Automatic annotation (TrEMBL):
NCBIfam families: BREX_BrxD. InterPro entries: BrxD (IPR021228), P-loop_NTPase (IPR027417). This is ATP/GTP binding protein. It comes from Enhygromyxa salina. The lineage of its organism: Bacteria, Pseudomonadati, Myxococcota, Polyangia, Nannocystales.
């Protein structure tokens, strides 16, 4: 389990109060997912040995897909991987354009030491490692040609890891950033790093320094990603883990954009083995995988990653799609007990006296009844309500949480997905971007 500071614990509860998934400490209240977490760890072990893979997390609304994906990121960072967590969005991320995906992935790079915006930190770590290696071979760090040797070694190491598969501009920018940093020209170095991150707002004067033109295109971005993965490994990380959350958003796109996005996923899957030390994790709903508007509408992709389940609900966790099981009442109780133990009360005795197992049982039943028995919709609201009760116990000396046994729980601040599910018997009915469910052709889009 991750070692948590008081600030970490405060951050966990602050995020949960707002209905969000925290970025740290998830393992402190992760219950009922031992099988799934073991499979993620197996994938990390394979990637750490030099493999390249893709895993899909499959689950209905409320199953904890984002939680599991965030937990995978935390696990990866704890094991020495760099990570990136990206959410597919109608407005902010067009998945059918890989330059857009690349920009989001690189800008969201994180490590255990640098949770966000870690590209510069990763490069500095690599440069430091190269410098130490040269000094260990009796190179004089004060010699006039030492920086030139470092720049040459950077290119040599990258080539040894990924061959000549990274664009020449990638290597040139890395070397130029190093030179600029050594010369104290940090603004220019930062501008080139922004360009390498996929920014389209870098001044022509900055690009001229490294003899580059234009921006990283959609068709070039996969090659640049290969360079990023090589740099991550050169900096002594085990590899890179990229999470693409809420892939079902693709279903709301028009058919042409949807087809390109799905073909992009097919290309990622087909090329995964050639991206050593890279693990992609996609999350999506059953409709994303099984409907003709989604993966099932692109036969080559569906044939590769289709989900199989035997009678009795038995599903192999090692197949491409890892099915997440919906919450039940007992799992909610276990989560509540874990959060109760993690909570830092000002009055521990009152916390112990009022937040009892009997109260947890009552709250689970009340919140579930408020959602008409659809326990799969409950987790986010239950956790918020449970934390609210613990807070009130500390703030109000006369407050008795068990008094709610005489009142009904009325859900508030429902998301569109929750309203959708309540209107359709507990199941979210997917809204498609259009009515065209004809099969999509396979094509190279990136």
């Amino acid at each position: 389990m991750t070692s948590l500071t008081l600030q970490d614990i405060e951050d966990i509860f602050e995020k949960l109060r707002g209905g969000a998934v925290p970025e740290r400490g998830l393992d402190s209240y992760a219950v009922g997912i031992d099988r799934e977490l073991a499979e993620i760890r197996r994938q990390l072990e394979l990637v750490g040995r030099g493999g390249g893979y893709v895993k899909f997390l499959r689950g209905d609304y409320g199953c904890g897909k984002t939680f599991m994906a965030r937990l995978a990121v935390l696990e990866a960072q704890n094991q020495g991987f760099a990570t990136s967590f990206v959410v597919v969005s109608d407005n902010d991320l067009k998945f059918h354009r890989f330059d857009d995906v690349y920009r989001k992935v690189v800008s969201a790079l994180g490590t255990a030491a640098c949770p966000r915006g870690a590209l510069s930190d990763i490069l500095d770590r690599w440069i430091g490692k190269v410098e130490e290696g040269l000094i260990a071979t009796d190179c004089d760090p004060d010699a006039a040609d030492f920086d030139a040797k470092v720049a040459a070694k950077l290119a040599e190491e990258l080539t040894s890891m990924i061959g000549n598969q990274a664009p020449a501009e990638f290597v040139r920018v890395i070397q130029k950033v190093f030179e600029l940093k050594q010369a104290g020209e940090l603004t220019e170095a930062a501008a080139l790093l922004s360009w390498l991150s996929g920014s389209t707002n870098v001044a022509a004067s900055a690009k001229k320094i490294a003899d580059i033109r234009g921006e990283i295109s959609s068709r070039d971005a996969m090659a640049y990603l290969r360079g990023i993965v090589g740099m991550v490994h050169a900096a002594d990380y085990k590899g890179l883990v990229i999470v693409i959350d809420e892939a079902e958003t693709i279903l709301r796109m028009r058919r042409d954009s949807r087809g390109k996005s799905l073909n992009g996923i097919r290309q990622i899957y087909d090329d995964a083995g050639s991206y050593e030390r890279l693990l992609w994790i996609f999350t999506g709903t059953p409709d994303f995988f099984d409907s003709r508007h989604g993966v099932a509408g692109l036969t080559p992709l569906y044939d590769r990653i289709g989900f199989s389940q035997e009678e009795g609900g038995f599903a192999n966790v090692r197949q491409p799609q890892l099915a997440l099981r919906p919450f039940g009442k007992e799992r909610l109780r276990a989560v509540a007990r874990a959060l109760r133990d993690l909570y830092q009360p000002e009055n521990p005795q009152r916390h112990k006296d009022e937040i009892t197992d009997d109260f947890i049982d009552l709250l689970v039943d009340k919140v579930t009844e408020g959602f008409r028995g659809h326990v799969g919709l409950v987790p986010r609201h239950f956790i918020r309500e449970f934390i609210n009760k613990m807070d009130l116990v500390q703030q109000e000396p006369k407050y008795k949480p068990m008094a709610m046994k005489d009142r009904d729980y009325v859900p508030r601040e429902l998301t569109p997905e929750e309203e959708n599910a309540l209107a359709h018997g507990g199941t979210v009915v997917t809204e498609f971007g259009d009515d065209d469910a004809t099969p999509m052709p396979a094509e190279e889009v990136w």
